[in-house]
Design a protein that fits this description.
Blueprint lengths: L5 E6 L3 E8 L2 E4 L5 E2 L10 E6 L2 E6 L2 E7 L32
Antiparallel strand pairs: 1-2, 2-3, 2-4, 5-6, 6-7
Amino acid sequence: MDGAGYYVARWNVDSVRVDRVVNGERQLLPSSEIKVKLAPELWHMLTVEHRGDQIRVSVDDTRVFEGKDNTYGAAGQIGVWIKADSVTYFDDLTVEALSQ
């Protein structure tokens, strides 16, 4: 996998989206962005679990996406990213190897 192929879980105060990026082009995995309502002045937790072809995304303790995709089968790297117009703070980033 390279910079043109990866998965993205992105959230705003009003939505979450899960994308698969193929050859640099984003493809929305669910049929639309998932609506959520987050208080912007509070801390929130985004959790992404990716085991085999299973992808689960939760915001705080609520699962907002569960789906399957096998475009990229090998384990890879992770990263964090924000849009240029966002004010975002990261704290306590944890990465764990998950068993199948």
